[in-house]
């Protein structure tokens, strides 16, 4: 996670008092790229604040898609909450690659139909 945060062009952190709920961010492959890799890290404290994550990340991703028309990433098979979050953000999924499922979120599809 430290490497992901360091390589990110932008990072969002969700807090409740002194507890970190989640972090997510964007890693572009180059400074001039029109795409970025979307990552998410959650803690056990997030379960009581899922709605806030969805609402905030919806706005953050809408802003991100103005700078990066394509967001990409991978999600572990069986990570039902992460998959649900990505679906809510309009992700389209590819075929499984080992224990990972690739996804894309396109500005051309935002907001979701």
Present the secondary structure layout.
Blueprint: H1 2-7, E1 10-16, E2 19-27, E3 35-42, H2 50-67, E4 70-76, H3 80-88, E5 92-93, E6 100-106
Parallel strand pairs: 3-4
Antiparallel strand pairs: 1-2, 2-3, 4-6, 5-6
Question: Brief overview, please?
Answer:
Helix content is 29%, strand content 35%.
Spatial shape: globular
Rounded mean pLDDT is 90
SS strand fraction: 35-45%
Q: Please identify, by name, the CATH architecture.
A: 3-Layer(aba) Sandwich
Number of E-type strands: 6
What is the helix/strand order? HEEEHEHEE
Low-confidence stretches: none
Q: What's the number of structural domains? A: 1
CATH topology: Aminopeptidase
* Distance between the ends: 33 Å
Spatial ordering of strands, largest sheet: 1-2-3-4-6-5
Top keywords for this entry?
six-stranded mixed β-sheet, 113 residues, Aminopeptidase, globular, alpha+beta, 6 strands
């Amino acid at each position: 996670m430290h490497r992901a945060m360091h390589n990110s062009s932008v990072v969002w952190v969700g807090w409740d008092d002194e507890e970190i709920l989640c972090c997510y961010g964007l890693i572009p492959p180059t400074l001039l790229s029109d795409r970025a890799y979307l990552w998410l890290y959650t803690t056990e404290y997030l379960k009581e604040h899922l709605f806030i994550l969805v609402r905030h990340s919806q706005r953050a991703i809408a802003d991100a898609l103005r700078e990066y028309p394509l967001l990409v990433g991978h999600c572990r098979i069986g990570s039902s909450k992460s998959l649900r979050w990505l679906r809510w953000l309009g992700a389209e999924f590819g075929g499984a690659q080992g224990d990972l499922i690739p996804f894309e979120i396109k500005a051309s599809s935002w907001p979701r139909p």
